[in-house]
Amino acid sequence: MSKYNYIKWFHEIDKDDVGVVGGKGANLGELTQMGIDVPPGFCVTAGAYDEFIDYANLDEVVKLLMEGLDVEDVDELQRVGEQIRDRINNGDIYPPLEEEIIKAYREFSKEIGLENPEVAVRSSATAEDLPDASFAGQQDTYLHIHGEKELVEYVRRCWASLWTSRAIYYREKQNYDHFEVSLSVVVQKMVNSEKSGVMFTANPINNNRDEMMINASWGLGEAVVSGTVTPDEYTINKKDGSIIEENIATKNSMVVKAKSGIGTEEVSIKDVLGEEYVERECLTKDELNTLIEDGKKIENLYGSVQDIEWGIDVDTKKLYILQSRPITTLTETKEEEQVADKDEVLEMIVRGLAASPGIGRGKVRKIKDVSEINMVEDGDILVTGMTNPDMVPAMRKSAGVVTDEGGRTCHAAIVSRELGIPCIVGAKDATRLLEDGQKITVDATRGVVYKGYVLNEKKEDKKESQGGSFSINDEFRRLVAPITATKIYMNLGEPELIERYKDLPFDGIGLMRTEFIFTNMIGAHPMYLVKTGQGNLMVEKLAEGISKVASAIYPRPVVVRLSDFRTNEFRGLKGGDEVEPIEQNPMIGWRGVSRYISPEYEEGFRLECQAMKKVREEFGLDNVVAMLPFVRTPEELVVVKNIMADEGLVQGKDFKIWIMAEVPSVVFQAEEFAELVDGFSIGSNDLTQLVMGADRDSGVLNNMGYFDERNEAVKRAIKILVDACNKKGKTISICGQGPSQYPEFAEFLVECGITSMSVNPDTVDYTRRLVASVEQKMILRKLRG
Fold this sequence. Notes:
Elements: E1 7-9, H1 18-34, E2 41-44, H2 46-55, H3 59-66, H4 74-89, H5 95-112, E3 119-125, E4 141-145, H6 148-160, H7 165-173, E5 183-189, E6 193-200, E7 211-218, H8 222-226, E8 232-237, E9 243-247, E10 253-257, E11 264-268, H9 269-272, H10 276-279, H11 285-302, E12 306-313, E13 319-326, E14 348-351, E15 353-356, E16 359-366, E17 381-384, H12 392-397, E18 400-403, H13 411-419, E19 423-425, H14 430-433, E20 439-443, E21 448-451, H15 474-480, E22 487-492, H16 498-501, E23 509-513, H17 515-522, H18 526-531, H19 535-553, E24 558-561, H20 567-570, H21 576-579, H22 593-596, H23 602-618, E25 624-628, H24 634-646, E26 657-661, H25 664-668, H26 670-674, E27 679-683, H27 684-692, H28 699-703, H29 712-728, E28 731-735, H30 738-741, H31 743-752, E29 756-759, H32 764-784
Parallel strand pairs: 16-17, 17-18, 18-19, 22-23, 22-29, 23-24, 24-25, 25-26, 26-27, 27-28, 28-29
Antiparallel strand pairs: 1-2, 2-5, 3-4, 3-5, 6-7, 6-12, 7-8, 8-9, 10-11, 12-13, 14-21, 15-19, 16-20, 20-21
């Protein structure tokens, strides 16, 4: 190859050449040398930009225009940026420099065997993509450029993009000297992508470095990066490549080569590919696996987590890595939990993808495009179809951002994470449903927008301790509590009590009883409400009670046991005496799942399902797990799951269903039940009375020792249940006081392989320490052999 003063080929570049070819160019050179499939190309060096500025006598002109600029004045910022770009676009290029660009393009054409090949022309600033500066979309990229004259023209446009309002604003906020930053231009073979997207080798939403996030859509990657389309999204377990979460989006548009032959245009997927492609998953399993492996390989080669753009060529079906840069928005800080005030009501307006965690409150300010960004005032919630890089000054003022389109790797998401602003993307109808000036709360931890200012953090008075000592409170106990392999859950009945107990050292709520909500918040029988047309009252109140607990301890799980009233208890609710039969032995009568599937109560159960769906989907509290009580047969379990699915509660990765294992029939068919659910919770009280034939309320039998979980028959039943769940890979828990009352019983459970125990609040701390002691004893026993 010829010798050049202003050109560097990819194979000549590595990561140490940022000062010569910018961050993007250095990364592409490094990837090329690593053997990664990168479209070939070359860089017009940063020195070429400096030579152009000097030859065109623009240096002093730019300094004069920049003097005294207030970057917070959006109008002034745009005016100055436009004036500088006009001068660059009309400046004379140093002739030897122009000759080198043309010569390199000709040599490149011969190298790849194409005449006037199409190329992507990308900006690469010398301060871009450094470990502390990965701001998205600062400078411009131009696609499907071909021919010598076009190439020179678009190289010049890239130089000019160093002075967009967004780039000026960013450098100012990052304290970069505007005149110490230069710009290289990457010229790269154009990949005509059939499908493309972005891959993060760490989860940018929860900062988990053991997960990857991949976005994919049809056509060129510009649609995913800019957020004009909501892409398919995969969250991947980096260790084994399994899919943790998968969201296949409705993809209405794609970006393709423009009909004019220069640049790109947005088209309808339905019109170009066919209606079936709108809902179709983009990636095949093999393509997804190849992406995962390439992502891990690139991360290992760099030694840091990466933000990678990729494309699959429409002709060769080959995967190309288009660029890779470090992720700099990961944080190690824990998001502060914020919960609803005692009396506030959560009213969802719209929901989308949680892209930048946090909670923001403010008035809605809807903008259509960059010309309206000066309408955004400090503390507003910016609502738009999709942000673009020129909106950054307005985003910085905002208390939150909500967009109709986009995935969690688009421009709005990345910039919001860097700025620390709560952001929800892909909300579809946000610009239609939200009104200008409307007061809203953006819960970007769960992806929900609520009406009004809600989710106000509760601030408790912090009293200074006297005498230089400190008091040991619940929060401190949680911090110093021993770590146990067996999870310690807590039982809870009254939702209001979660505020008192939320800092205890528990791993979640293993049994949330809904009966208290029925008696104290609803007060009427479900079927009475159905008959009087008040079913929505039950849905709202039940959802309110469950969400109060789930939001207070999010993301710790809350296992909600659906109603387990017996007939005599249901009769005590308003209207209950009209619909409930009188039973001689209600303890083993019409209760639990047998009630749910009966025509006499099914509509009431459907209201319970609707409340749970509201909590999970409208409030975004996906930490809620459903638990079915008093299950007797696999057949009734199948029927009740079908009813739940009909109400939108479909069992899967994102929604778990447990059962109470408290009837001996579940013991005898344990493996069959385990195949139908995600977990068992052993109801030791009912199981003991039914195995022993001993009424739990009988004082005589209790005094004689018949009602005791430590009875060998009960322990054998428990062992069968634990073994079945472990064999099938399902969760197995127990809710009862046996483990905290009897240390030997706790030791028995741990040795059996129980995965969790759920106890009352007053014994949480003691039980955790007891279990830790048992686990340590077991480890020592094995070590001593």
